Amino acid sequence: MPEPTLKNSPSKIPLARELLRRYELKAKKSLGQNFLADPKIAEKIVSLSELPSGKTVVELGVGLGTLTYALAKVAKRVIGFELDQNLIEILEKERFLPPNVEIRHGDILKLDYQALAEEIGEKLIIFGNLPYYLSSRLLWNLIQERKDIDFCVFMFQKEVAERLMARPGTKDYGPLSVLLALTAKVKKLMELSPGCFYPPPEVRSSLIKIKFINNSLPNEKELLKVLKASFASRRKKLVTNLKALGLSKEEARNLLEEINVSSNARAEELSPEKFLALAEKLSRDE
Protein backbone atom coordinates (compact mmCIF):
# COMPACT_ATOMS: atom_id res chain seq x y z
CA MET A 1 0.00 0.00 0.00
CA PRO A 2 1.46 3.42 -0.91
CA GLU A 3 2.29 5.77 1.93
CA PRO A 4 -0.26 8.53 2.50
CA THR A 5 0.69 11.97 1.28
CA LEU A 6 -0.51 15.30 2.53
CA LYS A 7 -3.07 17.21 0.55
CA ASN A 8 -1.47 20.07 -1.42
CA SER A 9 1.98 18.74 -0.53
CA PRO A 10 4.50 16.88 -2.72
CA SER A 11 4.98 13.15 -2.22
CA LYS A 12 8.73 13.64 -2.46
CA ILE A 13 10.56 16.38 -0.60
CA PRO A 14 13.96 17.80 -1.59
CA LEU A 15 16.95 16.36 0.25
CA ALA A 16 19.07 18.56 2.52
CA ARG A 17 22.12 18.13 0.28
CA GLU A 18 20.14 19.24 -2.78
CA LEU A 19 18.76 22.31 -1.05
CA LEU A 20 22.15 23.47 0.19
CA ARG A 21 23.61 23.10 -3.30
CA ARG A 22 20.67 24.85 -4.91
CA TYR A 23 21.08 27.88 -2.66
CA GLU A 24 24.90 27.71 -2.55
CA LEU A 25 24.97 27.35 1.22
CA LYS A 26 27.05 25.23 3.56
CA ALA A 27 26.13 23.80 6.95
CA LYS A 28 27.31 26.11 9.72
CA LYS A 29 29.69 24.45 12.15
CA SER A 30 29.11 27.31 14.59
CA LEU A 31 25.47 26.18 14.90
CA GLY A 32 26.32 22.47 14.94
CA GLN A 33 24.32 21.89 11.75
CA ASN A 34 24.07 18.25 10.66
CA PHE A 35 20.76 17.96 8.85
CA LEU A 36 18.65 14.83 8.83
CA ALA A 37 19.27 13.56 5.31
CA ASP A 38 16.77 10.77 4.69
CA PRO A 39 12.97 11.30 4.68
CA LYS A 40 12.45 7.58 5.38
CA ILE A 41 14.49 7.88 8.59
CA ALA A 42 12.35 10.88 9.56
CA GLU A 43 9.20 8.79 9.14
CA LYS A 44 10.73 6.00 11.21
CA ILE A 45 11.53 8.48 13.98
CA VAL A 46 7.91 9.64 14.08
CA SER A 47 6.68 6.04 14.09
CA LEU A 48 8.99 4.95 16.92
CA SER A 49 8.03 7.99 18.99
CA GLU A 50 4.39 6.81 19.14
CA LEU A 51 3.20 10.33 18.46
CA PRO A 52 -0.58 10.46 18.91
CA SER A 53 -2.43 11.79 15.88
CA GLY A 54 -4.17 15.13 16.08
CA LYS A 55 -1.70 16.74 18.48
CA THR A 56 0.30 19.96 18.19
CA VAL A 57 4.04 19.33 18.04
CA VAL A 58 6.90 21.72 18.76
CA GLU A 59 10.09 21.14 16.77
CA LEU A 60 13.33 22.67 18.03
CA GLY A 61 15.69 23.37 15.16
CA VAL A 62 13.72 22.81 11.96
CA GLY A 63 16.81 22.77 9.76
CA LEU A 64 15.76 21.97 6.19
CA GLY A 65 12.41 20.48 7.10
CA THR A 66 12.96 16.74 6.70
CA LEU A 67 11.63 15.80 10.14
CA THR A 68 9.10 18.64 10.01
CA TYR A 69 7.46 17.13 6.95
CA ALA A 70 7.21 13.69 8.58
CA LEU A 71 5.74 15.18 11.76
CA ALA A 72 3.14 17.11 9.78
CA LYS A 73 1.75 13.85 8.37
CA VAL A 74 0.64 12.82 11.87
CA ALA A 75 0.30 16.04 13.88
CA LYS A 76 -2.61 18.45 13.72
CA ARG A 77 -0.11 21.30 13.79
CA VAL A 78 3.68 21.70 13.86
CA ILE A 79 5.28 24.81 15.35
CA GLY A 80 8.94 24.80 14.39
CA PHE A 81 11.69 27.06 15.71
CA GLU A 82 14.83 27.84 13.73
CA LEU A 83 17.67 30.25 14.51
CA ASP A 84 19.22 30.33 11.02
CA GLN A 85 17.26 32.85 8.95
CA ASN A 86 18.79 31.50 5.72
CA LEU A 87 17.13 28.14 6.30
CA ILE A 88 13.77 29.74 7.04
CA GLU A 89 13.99 31.64 3.74
CA ILE A 90 14.76 28.40 1.86
CA LEU A 91 11.70 26.71 3.36
CA GLU A 92 9.53 29.71 2.50
CA LYS A 93 10.74 29.68 -1.12
CA GLU A 94 10.52 25.93 -1.64
CA ARG A 95 7.00 25.68 -0.20
CA PHE A 96 7.07 21.90 0.27
CA LEU A 97 5.92 22.03 3.88
CA PRO A 98 2.14 21.67 4.28
CA PRO A 99 -0.23 24.34 5.65
CA ASN A 100 -0.30 22.86 9.16
CA VAL A 101 3.36 23.86 9.67
CA GLU A 102 4.35 27.23 11.13
CA ILE A 103 8.03 28.18 11.23
CA ARG A 104 9.14 30.79 13.76
CA HIS A 105 12.53 32.43 14.05
CA GLY A 106 13.93 31.94 17.54
CA ASP A 107 16.69 30.73 19.82
CA ILE A 108 15.58 27.47 21.45
CA LEU A 109 17.56 28.28 24.59
CA LYS A 110 15.40 31.36 25.14
CA LEU A 111 11.92 29.98 24.52
CA ASP A 112 9.15 30.54 27.05
CA TYR A 113 7.78 27.00 27.29
CA GLN A 114 5.04 27.94 29.73
CA ALA A 115 3.70 30.58 27.34
CA LEU A 116 3.93 28.11 24.46
CA ALA A 117 1.93 25.50 26.39
CA GLU A 118 -0.69 28.13 27.23
CA GLU A 119 -0.91 29.12 23.56
CA ILE A 120 -1.38 25.51 22.45
CA GLY A 121 -3.72 24.67 25.32
CA GLU A 122 -2.03 21.46 26.39
CA LYS A 123 1.29 20.07 27.53
CA LEU A 124 4.05 20.26 24.95
CA ILE A 125 5.27 17.44 22.73
CA ILE A 126 8.76 18.38 21.58
CA PHE A 127 10.98 16.95 18.84
CA GLY A 128 14.45 18.00 17.75
CA ASN A 129 17.79 17.10 16.23
CA LEU A 130 20.01 18.78 18.80
CA PRO A 131 23.55 20.02 18.20
CA TYR A 132 26.14 18.84 20.71
CA TYR A 133 27.06 22.30 21.96
CA LEU A 134 23.65 23.11 23.42
CA SER A 135 22.24 19.69 24.36
CA SER A 136 23.03 19.87 28.07
CA ARG A 137 21.92 23.48 28.52
CA LEU A 138 18.64 22.81 26.74
CA LEU A 139 17.93 19.74 28.87
CA TRP A 140 18.57 21.68 32.08
CA ASN A 141 15.97 24.21 30.85
CA LEU A 142 13.43 21.56 29.88
CA ILE A 143 13.72 19.66 33.16
CA GLN A 144 12.94 22.85 35.04
CA GLU A 145 10.00 23.56 32.69
CA ARG A 146 8.72 19.96 32.74
CA LYS A 147 5.31 20.77 34.25
CA ASP A 148 4.42 22.16 30.81
CA ILE A 149 5.91 19.23 28.84
CA ASP A 150 4.40 15.83 28.04
CA PHE A 151 7.36 14.21 26.31
CA CYS A 152 10.40 14.98 24.17
CA VAL A 153 12.01 13.01 21.34
CA PHE A 154 15.53 14.12 20.53
CA MET A 155 18.46 13.06 18.41
CA PHE A 156 21.64 13.39 20.45
CA GLN A 157 25.23 12.48 19.86
CA LYS A 158 25.60 8.99 21.28
CA GLU A 159 27.86 10.10 24.14
CA VAL A 160 25.27 12.65 25.29
CA ALA A 161 22.54 10.00 25.20
CA GLU A 162 24.68 7.66 27.31
CA ARG A 163 25.06 10.37 29.95
CA LEU A 164 21.30 10.79 30.18
CA MET A 165 20.75 7.11 30.97
CA ALA A 166 23.90 6.47 33.01
CA ARG A 167 23.73 4.63 36.32
CA PRO A 168 25.63 5.36 39.55
CA GLY A 169 29.22 4.17 39.55
CA THR A 170 29.80 4.77 35.84
CA LYS A 171 31.93 7.44 34.18
CA ASP A 172 28.95 8.92 32.34
CA TYR A 173 26.84 9.40 35.49
CA GLY A 174 26.29 13.07 36.26
CA PRO A 175 23.76 15.78 37.17
CA LEU A 176 21.53 15.16 34.16
CA SER A 177 21.51 11.42 34.85
CA VAL A 178 20.33 12.11 38.40
CA LEU A 179 17.65 14.64 37.45
CA LEU A 180 16.19 12.53 34.67
CA ALA A 181 16.16 9.42 36.87
CA LEU A 182 14.06 11.38 39.38
CA THR A 183 11.72 13.14 36.96
CA ALA A 184 11.31 11.08 33.79
CA LYS A 185 11.32 7.79 31.97
CA VAL A 186 14.15 7.80 29.42
CA LYS A 187 14.20 5.31 26.56
CA LYS A 188 16.55 4.84 23.62
CA LEU A 189 14.46 4.27 20.49
CA MET A 190 17.21 3.70 17.92
CA GLU A 191 20.77 4.51 16.89
CA LEU A 192 21.54 6.54 13.79
CA SER A 193 24.70 6.23 11.74
CA PRO A 194 26.59 9.33 10.55
CA GLY A 195 25.23 8.64 7.07
CA CYS A 196 21.72 9.57 8.24
CA PHE A 197 22.84 13.20 8.35
CA TYR A 198 24.33 15.75 5.97
CA PRO A 199 27.07 16.63 6.42
CA PRO A 200 27.74 13.38 8.31
CA PRO A 201 29.00 13.94 11.89
CA GLU A 202 32.04 12.07 13.15
CA VAL A 203 30.07 10.01 15.68
CA ARG A 204 26.89 7.97 15.87
CA SER A 205 23.69 9.47 17.23
CA SER A 206 20.89 8.09 19.40
CA LEU A 207 17.18 8.79 19.30
CA ILE A 208 15.93 9.29 22.86
CA LYS A 209 12.42 9.67 24.23
CA ILE A 210 12.01 11.51 27.54
CA LYS A 211 8.59 11.16 29.17
CA PHE A 212 8.25 13.41 32.21
CA ILE A 213 6.45 11.75 35.13
CA ASN A 214 7.31 13.83 38.20
CA ASN A 215 6.43 17.52 38.06
CA SER A 216 7.83 18.45 41.45
CA LEU A 217 10.67 17.27 43.66
CA PRO A 218 11.09 18.19 47.32
CA ASN A 219 13.82 20.80 47.80
CA GLU A 220 14.45 20.99 44.07
CA LYS A 221 16.37 24.27 44.14
CA GLU A 222 18.65 22.86 46.82
CA LEU A 223 19.06 19.67 44.79
CA LEU A 224 20.28 21.61 41.75
CA LYS A 225 22.88 23.38 43.89
CA VAL A 226 23.99 20.08 45.42
CA LEU A 227 24.39 18.42 42.01
CA LYS A 228 26.41 21.27 40.53
CA ALA A 229 28.73 21.34 43.54
CA SER A 230 29.04 17.56 43.86
CA PHE A 231 30.05 16.92 40.25
CA ALA A 232 32.19 20.05 39.82
CA SER A 233 35.40 18.03 40.30
CA ARG A 234 34.66 14.36 39.70
CA ARG A 235 37.98 13.11 41.09
CA LYS A 236 37.53 14.88 44.40
CA LYS A 237 35.62 13.45 47.33
CA LEU A 238 32.21 14.83 48.16
CA VAL A 239 33.39 16.32 51.44
CA THR A 240 35.71 18.54 49.40
CA ASN A 241 33.24 19.47 46.68
CA LEU A 242 30.53 20.37 49.20
CA LYS A 243 32.71 23.23 50.46
CA ALA A 244 31.25 25.18 47.52
CA LEU A 245 27.96 25.20 49.45
CA GLY A 246 29.61 26.85 52.45
CA LEU A 247 30.22 23.65 54.43
CA SER A 248 33.38 22.81 56.29
CA LYS A 249 34.81 19.32 55.77
CA GLU A 250 33.58 18.34 59.21
CA GLU A 251 30.06 19.55 58.47
CA ALA A 252 30.09 17.72 55.14
CA ARG A 253 31.25 14.49 56.83
CA ASN A 254 28.47 14.73 59.39
CA LEU A 255 25.91 15.39 56.70
CA LEU A 256 26.99 12.37 54.67
CA GLU A 257 26.99 10.21 57.77
CA GLU A 258 23.37 11.18 58.44
CA ILE A 259 22.33 9.74 55.04
CA ASN A 260 24.57 6.66 55.41
CA VAL A 261 27.17 7.71 52.85
CA SER A 262 30.90 7.22 53.40
CA SER A 263 32.99 10.33 53.93
CA ASN A 264 35.31 8.91 51.24
CA ALA A 265 32.55 8.78 48.63
CA ARG A 266 32.65 10.59 45.32
CA ALA A 267 29.59 12.03 43.61
CA GLU A 268 29.32 9.26 41.01
CA GLU A 269 28.77 6.69 43.80
CA LEU A 270 25.54 8.24 45.11
CA SER A 271 22.12 7.13 43.88
CA PRO A 272 19.60 9.78 42.78
CA GLU A 273 17.67 9.12 46.01
CA LYS A 274 20.78 9.85 48.11
CA PHE A 275 21.17 13.20 46.37
CA LEU A 276 17.55 13.98 47.24
CA ALA A 277 18.21 13.07 50.87
CA LEU A 278 21.31 15.27 50.89
CA ALA A 279 19.32 18.21 49.51
CA GLU A 280 16.66 17.68 52.18
CA LYS A 281 19.25 17.70 54.98
CA LEU A 282 20.84 20.87 53.64
CA SER A 283 17.51 22.67 53.34
CA ARG A 284 16.64 21.81 56.94
CA ASP A 285 19.97 23.10 58.21
CA GLU A 286 19.69 26.46 56.44
TrEMBL record:
Its EC number is 2.1.1.182. Residues 41-214 form the Ribosomal RNA adenine methylase transferase N-terminal domain. One of its GO terms (cellular component) is cytosol. Its main location: cytoplasm. InterPro entries: KsgA/Erm (IPR001737), rRNA_Ade_diMease-like_C (IPR023165), rRNA_Ade_Mease_Trfase_CS (IPR020596), rRNA_Ade_methylase_Trfase_N (IPR020598), rRNA_adenine_dimethylase (IPR011530), SAM-dependent_MTases_sf (IPR029063). Specifically dimethylates two adjacent adenosines (A1518 and A1519) in the loop of a conserved hairpin near the 3'-end of 16S rRNA in the 30S particle. May play a critical role in biogenesis of 30S subunits. Belongs to the class I-like SAM-binding methyltransferase superfamily. rRNA adenine N(6)-methyltransferase family. RsmA subfamily. This is Ribosomal RNA small subunit methyltransferase A. It comes from Thermodesulfatator indicus (strain DSM 15286 / JCM 11887 / CIR29812). The gene is rsmA.
